[in-house]
Design a protein that fits this description.
The complex is a heterodimer of chains A (111) and B (119). Helices cover 0% and strands 55% of the residues of chain A. In chain A, a hairpin with a 6-residue loop joins strand 4 and strand 5. Chain B contains no helices and 11 strands. Classes of the chains: A mainly beta (111), B mainly beta (119). The interface between A and B is medium-sized, with 29 and 30 residues.
Chain lengths: 111, 119
């Protein structure tokens, strides 16, 4: 069963514009959410996280929003840069020795 | 470097062969995870170690899969009698603190993975 879903396999935006990547989850026990970024032939690298006690976390150009009632989180990148082009994975955990990942969204930022 | 190191980077095995994949976590990291990532999918949890103790192996797909971390640092994922469906990227990740004590501020650090192709 897919407990973490990224319904958009790809997204293309213009440099300088906002990129919004979405993620939905089904397990209400998840209390920690992360976004990972992955370049080809490399492992995922941690980008930003948010715990369930917050609804927003910001780090430079990256902001993650959490809507617990909707079981939805999103990653905003403003302004988008060509170097942001990568696959972005949403992940969620309930502290039970497991972290569930979405299938990823491939972001392309065009110059 | 100080990151998670995995070897080999690529492995081609004939169906029925045994393979061993190695993970060197970041020094001092307590938690170690193995994930399997099929093409076009997100990483799928396989197993978790807290130091040398394997606390969760619920994600291992069959008894052909075996993981160990005997001294609480380096870990090996072994796949016996490989099958074509085992073809995937195997990712190792480590984290500084034990997973069950995490308060949401110790993310996993991933290695670059081992791409296994079973022919």
């Amino acid at each position: 069963d897919q407990q973490v879903k990224q319904n958009s396999p790809s997204l293309s935006v213009q440099e300088g514009r906002i990129s919004i990547l979405n993620c939905d989850y089904t397990n209400s026990m998840f209390d920690y959410f992360l976004w990972y970024k992955k370049y080809p032939a490399e492992g995922p690298t941690f980008l930003i996280s948010i715990s369930s006690i917050k609804d927003k976390n910001e780090d430079g150009r990256f902001t993650v929003f959490l809507n617990k009632s909707a079981k939805h989180l999103s990653l905003h990148i403003v302004p988008s840069q060509p170097g942001d082009s990568a696959v972005y994975f949403c992940a969620a955990s309930d502290n039970n020795n497991d972290m569930r990942f979405g299938a990823g969204t491939r972001l392309t930022v065009k110059p | 470097g100080a990151g998670v190191s995995q070897s080999p980077r690529y492995k081609v095995a004939k169906r029925g062969q045994d393979v061993a994949l190695r993970c060197d976590p970041i020094s001092g990291h307590v938690s170690l995870f193995w994930y399997q990532q099929a093409l076009g999918q997100g990483p799928e949890f396989l197993t978790y170690f807290q130091n040398e103790a394997q606390l969760d192996k619920s994600g291992l797909p069959s008894d052909r899969f075996f993981a160990e971390r005997p001294e609480g640092s380096v870990s090996t994922l072994k796949i016996q009698r490989t099958q074509q469906e085992d073809s995937a990227v195997y990712l190792c990740a480590s984290s500084l603190v034990s997973w069950d004590s995490m308060e949401g501020n110790s993310p996993l650090h991933f290695g670059n993975g081992t791409r296994l192709t079973v022919t």
